[in-house]
Amino acid sequence: MNHTTPSCIIQKEDIPTLKFSKTEILQSPRKRSLRSYYLDRATKLGNLLKNKVTIYFKDHTDQLMQVNTTIWAVTTDFVVLKQGITIPKRSILYID
Domains plus CATH for the chain? Predict the structure, then answer.
């Protein structure tokens, strides 16, 4: 995906210090479906090949952030990274 908005690059270990909005960032059902597809794909790549992906997400202040990491699992509401670190799915814009 091609996005031109600058984002803040953070380390995976800093994610637990962030606060996230309670509202869904993607309004389109199609975009939410695509996000789920790419999250599932990234999880398989991470578990099988140890591939890292870049996750673009917004915090509660609407600041765009990115983290380069391996996705270990995806639940109904969260993306799980190493060390049990989670990002709410509703806050994720896209995955590269």
Answer: 11-95 (2.30.30)
